[in-house]
Recover the amino acids of this structure.
């Protein structure tokens, strides 16, 4: 399959097929056994990840360690960008992260949105919203097309 800016129209449902395949790919990633979370993709260039901040992710001062911020922001931005690329897995080449509030115990949602780029390099942003509706972190990532075919990855093909 060649590089495309929009998901292909296929017998299996076009964009919806690509989005569900990305969601399966996310669910199959071994890292998500450590960081329980769920990816949802509804539109091209957008992704949403829901997860719970629990005491086992806290640093010594009783709030979520920065690892949680980076993981969820990077994933939300990455998958927002990868909705636009149907043949290759993207790689994070850089990510700028801003902590705006401590993440306490509770539900958090990471929202990702593609900003620019469609060929070799894509840029996407993400932000974290806590249970009270407050932004607790945000970030911007740069993602590059890899040589890894999505179709060969566990979970993507179904």
């Amino acid at each position: 399959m060649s590089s495309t800016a929009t998901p292909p129209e296929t017998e299996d449902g076009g964009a919806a097929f690509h989005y569900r395949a990305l969601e399966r790919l996310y669910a199959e990633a071994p890292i998500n056994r450590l960081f329980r979370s769920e990816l949802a993709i509804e539109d091209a260039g957008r992704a949403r990840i829901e997860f719970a901040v629990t005491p086992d992710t806290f640093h010594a001062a009783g709030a979520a360690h920065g690892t949680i911020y980076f993981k969820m922001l990077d994933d939300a931005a990455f998958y927002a960008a990868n909705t636009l690329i149907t043949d290759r897995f993207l790689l994070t080449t850089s990510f700028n992260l801003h902590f705006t509030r401590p993440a306490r115990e509770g539900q958090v949602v990471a929202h990702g949105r593609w900003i620019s780029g469609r060929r070799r390099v894509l840029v996407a942003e993400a932000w974290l919203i806590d249970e009270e509706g407050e932004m607790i972190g945000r970030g911007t990532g740069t993602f590059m097309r890899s040589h890894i075919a999505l179709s060969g990855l566990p979970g993507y093909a179904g």
Remarks:
- Residues 49 and 151 are 22 Å apart (CA to CA).
- Residues 1-12 have pLDDT under 50 and may be disordered.
